[in-house]
Amino acid sequence: MAEVDDVDALHLTMKLVDFLAEVTDAATRDPVRDILADEVSGPELVLWLDQLPEGIRVNDQSVDDVLLRVRPPSILPEPRPPAELVGWIDSSEPRGLDGFEPELLELGPIDVESKSARRVPPNSIVRAFTRWRGTWRQWSRSQKRRELYEKLESAAKKLEQRDDEFEFVLAVGLMCWQAPDGEQIRRHLVTEPVLPKLDRKTAEVTVSRVSGKRRFEDKEVLGAQEAYQPDRARISKTAVIESDASLLEEQTLAGILGWLELGFGEAFETEEMRGTKEELPTSPVLSASPALVLRPRSRVLLAEAYKRIAEALREPGAEVPVGLAQLVVDTEAEQRHRWLSEQGAVSGDVLGNDPLFPLHANDEQMRVIDLLRTETSVVVQGPPGTGKTHTIANLVSALLARGQRVLVTSQKDQALKVLRDKIPAELRQLCVLLAGGSKDAAKELEHGLEALSEAVASTNVHALSARADTLAAERDQSRSRSVELNDRVRELRDIENVRHEPVVPGFSTEIYLGTLKDIVREVKRVETAYDWIPAVDHNVPDVPPLSHAELIELHWLLRSDSPARRSRSTQEMAGSGSGSMRFDEFGE
After folding, report:
1. Three-state secondary structure call for residue 394
2. In the prediction, which pLDDT does 375 show?
3. By the 8 A CB rule, do 173 and 236 touch?
4. How many alpha carbons fall within 13 Å on the CB side of residue 216?
5. Residues 436-447: what's their mean pLDDT?
6. What is the 3-state secondary structure (H, E, C) of 541-566?
7. 76 or 131: whose pLDDT is higher?
8. Helix (H, G, I), strand (E, B) or coil at 369
9. Which DSSP state fits 300?
10. Contact predicate 369/351, CB 8 Å
11. In this structure, are residues 361 and 370 in contact, taking their beta carbons and an 8 Å threshold?
12. 207-227 confidence digits (pLDDT tens)
């Protein structure tokens, strides 16, 4: 296959990026402009901060950047009115959270017994109603807090699992307008990401600021209107985006007003109240109306990123992006390695022949590592639980051990958190997690830098080098010992498979033969038939006390034994003196 020219490869890659930018930009051309409209792509949740339940407030000045804390109130049944109030209140049926507050009627029920007309509530009824309404109000406040908690809990769980699809933002500067072209506009102009988080131990839900970029969404809100003139107010827009002031401060709303005066050629009004009436005003109305919004993730920033990549590829002297080029052109390994070498990339064989893996690696995982030595990229695909994260943890650890820096990206934050937990604790503190723009990433970065600084300041380089050499020698010894033990295990397994001839051929050639397992099984099978034989002391040498000939002679003597013969064992030969002998000294 002919090698693709570098210019052609760069050109085709630019076309790919242009296509991605166009497709992504097309998805943002018809944005949701009414956040309260029932649209598929509209927000799933809008929580107005000026309508939070009693006892819940936003803390805009918290040191830990937590805007909102909500603990789960208990689920309580709605208190029923006492029997004495029946007929004296507007309704005795359950009202629910959306129902109206109970009211005491001006005139009570007709007194059936006295047949008198309806009368005003007596003091006893007024007191009973006041007590019960206080209990009902307390229940209502508690359950509204419960309702808020459940909505935030649901948002936190959705962001945990689907943060690539949804985003949670703090929004201010609500524009409400029934535009001349019929477009219904009810959407905030400025947003910044926040993070709902569920504490699994305490069940508390928090909403915190994160380090994501503040966005001025003027194009999405007013882009289709003739009065929209963004070029006039670029400086004002940048000032709002880059301001250190909180979105909830008056300074931010003032900045939005300043932008409208320059970038929007239409007279507008301002009001304090949130504009959520069904009928939108025919003149633009701006209000602060801060809200928390859970919505499908915007693709605007992604489209802008693609456009910036395309612009960079058009710069003179732009290098071929190897990873993207492989998607649109057929390349050989030599050409890919040449591109990387010209761009100063590290060799793929940086792991060496003996990578330091902290976790066990099976054959399939080792095959991935082997491919990385010769390929510029490797795709590993498999269902959950097949070891993909395990393999990446090993690879990251081995590269860090070689002094390399590693960047790991993921579509979902949860995958990065799982990977970090798989990396050994000694290396984990040097891993900086930038997940969802979380401000915790800054703390982790600080922790990692402190760990590095401490290691540099408190470590003797020569002692550390000597320690590394010692550990390397110990590792080599351990590996050698492991090889020896594995060889021994293989030998023992081979011995288990050796087939033996009959152990006692003189007794039988049909039993006590085969593998050791077969022989032991046969001994166990007839064990009860020979349980009269006494156990052999384990300290006795594994050598019979009698030879084969001696055993046969003993057998013959025992068979020829008789009472008469035993009685003669004390008889002596005829003779005199010390020369006399007993028969038992001669034997037979």
Report:
1. helix
2. 78
3. no
4. 22
5. 61
6. CCCCCCCHHHHHHHHHHHHCCCHHHH
7. 131
8. helix
9. H
10. yes
11. no
12. 998 877 889 999 888 988 888
The residue with greater pLDDT, 44 or 431, is 44
Q: Which whole-number Å values give the CA distances from 46 to 52, 152, 193, 298, in the listed order? A: 12, 11, 14, 16
Closest to 349 measured CA to CA, from 303, 277, 410, 398: 398
Across all residues in the chain, what is the average pLDDT?
Answer: 83
Picking from 146, 164, 189, the residue at the C-terminal end of a domain is 146
Q: Which tokens in the block code for residue 511?
A: 């039993």
Strand partners, 296: 166
Q: Residue 115 carries which side chain, given as an amino acid letter?
A: K
Give dist(CA 390, CA 381) in Å, integer.
Answer: 13
Write out the two tokens for 343.
């761009």
Full-model pTM: 0.63
Q: How many domains does the chain have?
A: 2
Instruction: State pLDDT tens for residues 400-440.
Output: 888 888 889 887 777 888 888 898 887 877 777 776 555 55
Let me know: does 258 contact 236? Beta carbons within 8 Å. Answer: yes
Residue 542 within any structural domain of the chain: yes
d(CA 205, CA 159): 13
Q: Work out whether strand 285-287 and strand 269-270 pair parallel, antiparallel, or are unpaired.
A: parallel
Tell whether the model's pLDDT for residue 337 goes beyond 90: no
Cα 155 to Cα 195: distance, rounded to the nearest angstrom:
9
Does residue 87 lie in a domain region?
yes
Residue 141 lies in a domain: yes
For residue 184, list its beta bridge partners.
178
Q: Is residue 193 a contact partner of residue 168, using CB atoms and an 8 Å limit? A: yes
Kindly give, in sequence order, each residue whose CB lies less than 8 Å from that of residue 412, ignoring residues fewer than 6 positions away.
Answer: 161, 162, 163, 164
Report H helices in 264-409: 300-313, 322-328, 333-342, 363-374, 388-401
Which SS3 state, helix, strand or coil, does residue 580 take? coil
Q: Of 128, 146, 164, which one is at a domain's C-terminal end?
A: 146
* Gap between the Cα atoms of 468 and 465, Å rounded: 5
Closest CA to 237 of 219, 210, 212: 219
Higher pLDDT, 133 or 455: 133
Of 171, 170, 173, nearest in space to 255 by CA = 173
Chain-centroid distance of CA 165 in Å reads 16
The helix/strand/coil state of 286 is strand
Residue 353, SS3 per DSSP: coil
Is residue 443 pLDDT above 70, yes or no? no
Q: Which domain holds residue 505?
A: 500-561
Give the side-chain half-sphere CA count within 13 A for 400. Answer: 19
- Most confident of the following: 87-101, 317-331, 445-459: 317-331
- SS3 for 269? strand
Which one of 114-118, 135-139, 239-243, 455-459 scores highest in mean pLDDT? 239-243
Nearest to 207 by CA among 60, 345, 424: 60
How many residues are recorded in the chain? Answer: 588
The pLDDT confidence band at residue 588, using thresholds 50, 70 and 90, is: very low
Residue 220 covered by a domain = no
Taking a C-beta distance cutoff of 8 angstroms, is the pair 304, 189 a contact?
no
H or E element at residue 174: strand 166-178
